[in-house]
Design a protein that fits this description.
heterodimer, A: alpha+beta, Helicase, Ruva Protein, domain 3, Ribosomal Protein S5, domain 2, 3 domains, 6-stranded mixed β-sheet, about 20% strand, globular, B: about 350 residues, alpha/beta, Arc Repressor Mutant, subunit A, Dna Topoisomerase Vi A Subunit, Chain: A, domain 2, 3-stranded antiparallel β-sheet, 13 helices
Chain lengths: ~575, ~350
Amino acid sequence: MDVEATNVKERSADELFKEFKEVSITEFFRKNKAHLGYSGKVRSLTTIIHELVTNSLDACEEAGILPDIEVEIREIASEHYRFLERDNGPGIPVGHISNVFAKMLAGTKFHRNVQLRGQQGIGVSGVTMFCQMTTGKPMRIKTSTGDGKVNAVKLMIDITKNAADILEQTEYSEYWRGTEIECEVKSVKFNLSDTGPYEYLKRTALANPHARIALIDPEGRKTVFERSVDVIPKPPESQKPHPKGIEVDDLVNLSKQTSANKISSFLVGEFSRMSSGKVKEIQELIGKEKKEVKGKIENVYKLDMNRNPRKLTWAECEEIVKAIESIKFLAPATEGLQPIDEEHIMKAVLNILDPEFQFVLTRPPKVYSGGIPFQVEVALAYGGHAGRPVEGGMKVEIMRFANRSPLLFDAGGCALTEAVKDVDWKRYGIKDFDNSPITIFINLISTYIPYTSAGKQTVANEAEVVKEIKFALMDVARKFQMFYSRQRREGEKEARRQMLLKYGTELAEGLARLSEKKVDAKKVYQDLTSLIEEKIKLANELEMLEDAEDENGTAIPLEAQGDELIEGESEEKEE
Amino acid sequence: MTRREEVISRLGAFGDELLEEIQKNEVPKMKVPQRGLNNVVFNPSTYILELGDKKSTRNYMNLAHTKKFMQSVLIAAKCKELVDRDKTASIRELYYQLKHAIAETKENTFEGQDESDPLIVDLETMLGVLREELHLKADDKGTIIGKITIEDSGDKIDCSKLGRSGLAIPSIVEHYKFSDVKADYVLVIETAAMFDRLVEEKYHINNNCIMMATKGQAARGIRRLVHRINTELKLPVIVFTDGDPWGYYIYSVLKAGSMALAHESRRLGTPNVQFVGMTMTDIKEYGLEKVTEKLKDVDKKRISEIQVYPWFQKKEWKEELQLMVDMGVRLEQQALASKSLEFVAEEYLPEKIKKKKMLP
């Protein structure tokens, strides 16, 4: 018996494809916001603050202004807040306001080979989008470049056009410079946990000692992280990429955009550490083939370096990249990297954590994965406000930073966390590391931070990076050990002194009774006490002399420093 | 100067030396002779175990010594008081007299007698005086029975008229005076049970001897008494213990002295005592194979320890000890009961003693 398919119409391909629409980027965001930092109520709020503050810091830095940032979060109802972020930056020219706040994936940051703060964010437009999605309300922006005119704008994003929808725009006179952003948001939550905005701002302050950051929380409490350094950090420089890091696709794109006339000058001009000698090496490696040249069969190079680079094929680019893999190049220049600086971190740590002991270390720059420069800065703070208070004691706090931006989430799978856990802290005298009042600060800077995936806040397990972090941590731990053992020794010395004096009373009594002569027990005790104090003083002086000798003979650094040649097969490939 | 005045003077000098050091701004120190195998000297001709010259220094500023230092001074001061007042105290009473909380602390001067007892011995060796001379006494240990009269603080005690128990021997016997002695020798017995056995068999009456029970390791009182009876009354002394390394050690202590009291061996050791049993040769001689006991690991360890003591190097003892190792067994005094209850009193002892089958 035939079964009839009822109610199903056969449709033609044309009909089906009528429904095919291009999904706009903003729609993509709506459906994938979790990947972009807007997952979870607390995290979403922190991401909002992160985007705004990052922008302010970047803008101030580029304009050479010491940042003064204020954040206010007010609770309107449960999981419904109004926030405000204000900076003293250079302001946004009126023509650019739409782009900054309403255009996704636009911006100056995406194609520069430079150490960027907050590479993992989608930008301020994401904030506008998120607030709009949860409340239907627009973002209010006030900004002025300091020319006496303030622009106040109310805007939303038109999701289908991926452009701004300006609801209101006014201009008025006032002498002020900076940017103020105000918006309402729902489905977020404020708390003081270590993934919330407070912790984010505290860590941002630690990593940016030149910034003054204030927070007024929903309870009305104001916290100010004062600036501890008056120097604006030099903006990191853009650099030419190193040949070792390039992927075929990137090479193709670069070749299409170059204005060079020959492949050789394209390569030399586009890449760092590339010379005509290296170009020749590439050519040699790609090899020769038999070709007919002017009627004769000749052995010629497969790739003629004098050709037009814009005509390079995908296959040829692939050959070039493959050749590069087997060639030695000088390590990339690392001047583009901008560490926070040991002294600055020290000041920030002292300022914010007020610890009993702290030690900061900036390692020399290195290279990972063949061609990407990076640098590690590490600090350890003990006592004072260091560590994370929990019920029943203290827990160690690990603060991770990538290019000076705090990584608050997904600590578990992060290479930075792993490196800390890999160190054998017991060897340095810290018996119960996990429950100690210690804060570990790790800042990884690089032109390309190896995140595990988009939107995640975990650094991938690159061998060279992990090695560097461990070395840094061990150096710091060793310094801590010296301090800690000295502290313990002091405690022991005082206990000893107490004991000697304590038994001294009995000893004096006994001696007074034993002696045939008439001796006063009190006098004996006095004599004994002054004897004890004097001997202790002598012993301390001797110990200080010995300590001074120990310290002047400093520890041998763990590995030699200096320019390294990158081998074809990377020597760091130890897996 | 009488001995008493000598003792007081030494105690005073001990304190004064320390006071002087303090006044001279020097760290107070005391030198204590070391007691142990590495500081005993055995003299094979006199057969006496003596203390060597090695001393350890106790320094008040060294935390490991501080408390002991203080405790030693307290003990010395208290002993001086006892001697001055002509009172005696047991070592436990001394501990209680000295125990109190240290000013402004929750800590006591002494936590247990295990702290004060060894320091008393230190004081003895440092000052070269006997504990008894410091007016400290320990508990009674051991008994004596037989035809000897002992005068003790005005009382005359006839040790043959004390029923089956005999006289309890105190730790201080300096004041004893002997009279009316009718005995050929002294038999010193390790176990109380064997002592009782021999008393029931009227051994001391039938064999005209004085019997003493050490009841385990001989205490200083009984050792001193044996020494005095042997030297003053010129009576030979025969020792009768279990056939195991512990019994043999008891014998050696009676004979040559102990490491712990090496400073007193001259007054507490009796070099010419002799050993009647139990020996390993007895096993075959008297058919006692079935009543031996296997040596435990701890026994074997003890044998190897005593085998190297200089005072066990006589040929006869070396042979006995080796025989014990080879046979791997020990033999108790009371095992003689396997023959009959009377065997020890009627055959074993009389025969061996008459035939002088004894070890030196």
